[in-house]
Amino acid sequence: MNQGIPLVSGTKNTWCPGCGNFAIQHAVRFVIEELEREGIPRERIVLVSGIGCHAKIVDYFQVNSFYSLHGRTIPVATGIKMANPDLYVICFAGDGDLYAEGLDHLVHAAKRNVDITVICHNNRVYGLTTGQYTPTSPYGYKGRSTPQGIHESPLNVIEVLLGSGATFVARAYSRRLPLLRRIIREAVLHPGFAHVDVLQICATFYNLTAFYDEQVYETTETNVSQFDFACRTGHLWQYAEKGPIPLGIFYRTIRPSFPEKKEPFTKDRALAVKEIISRYS
Ligand code: SF4
After folding, report:
1. Is the CB of 53 under 6 A from ligand 1?
2. Position 14 in a domain
């Protein structure tokens, strides 16, 4: 047990002042502490990150974690969950990381209803590499690699997730902390693929604080089990420069997840896999 060991590590934090990642870290800390109080020990939680500013979050927690490759958080998280279905696996990824290189993994994990939680730090810019555009940057965005502005429309990731079969789809904002905490908690406890798209402020390269503060609103979350209703809510904002922007849980439903909890990855199955691997190595 980790009794007495602080949840937040002593690693020096190098996020920029004002970065929305602090709020996500705070919300996750709150949720893990709450789950621990409710009897889910820290040992049953595993954190996985990709590459980008967001990824440092795993260094800032004293929780079992895996720092994976760019766009590859979901395959790693899926493997961890298959090996031990009793674990709560939480993936952190950036929008450039997850919605570009990692998009195929995202779509198929949603389709399979892999029982993991994905938290996307969606700042709509490549922050770590100083401001290039990502799949969720708005039309006309001017970044380091596109000084004339981009001529493509952003991806509506909520619609992508709904169309892929995700069973929990939500949007939060790093400056609406109570909502962020609640949504992350519900996502972690959801039995199936849960996705939280967090509008995260990049204070240095694309600071949308004033725009979001003015445009976001919290939905009532009625009818979250109705797919048509979720599609309409998800369609309301196309990641453009105009709002209004709905926040909240858009869709939640229950269907068989992968792996099925009743078929754990037993020692016998592990030995069988080991035997197959040894044949080809
Ligand atoms: Fe945060 Fe942007 Fe700084 Fe990265 S570059 S730490 S996303 S403010």
Report:
1. yes
2. no
**In this predicted model, what pLDDT tens digit does every residue of 124-141 receive, in sequence order?**
999 999 999 999 999 999
CB 206 within 8 A of CB 272: no
**Closest to 35 in 3D by CA, of 63, 67, 68:** 63
CATH number at residue 115: 3.40.50.970
Residues sharing a CB contact under 8 Å with residue 262, sequence separation 6 or more, in sequence order: none
Residue-wise pLDDT tens digits, 183-240 = 999 999 999 999 999 999 999 999 999 999 999 999 999 999 999 999 999 999 999 9
Q: Is residue 16 part of a domain?
A: no
Give the domain extent around 134.
21-280
The CB-side HSE value for 153 (13 A sphere, CA atoms) comes to 8
Pocket test for ligand 1, best of 21, 95, 137 (most atoms within 8 A of CB): 21
Integer Cα distance of 55 and 53 in angstroms = 5
Residue having the nearest C-alpha atom to atom 2 of ligand 1: 202
CB under 8 Å to 119, separation ≥6 — which residues? 24, 28, 90, 91, 92, 93, 184, 187, 196, 198
First vs last C-alpha separation in the chain: 37
Structure-model confidence comparison of residues 176 and 279, the more confident one: 176
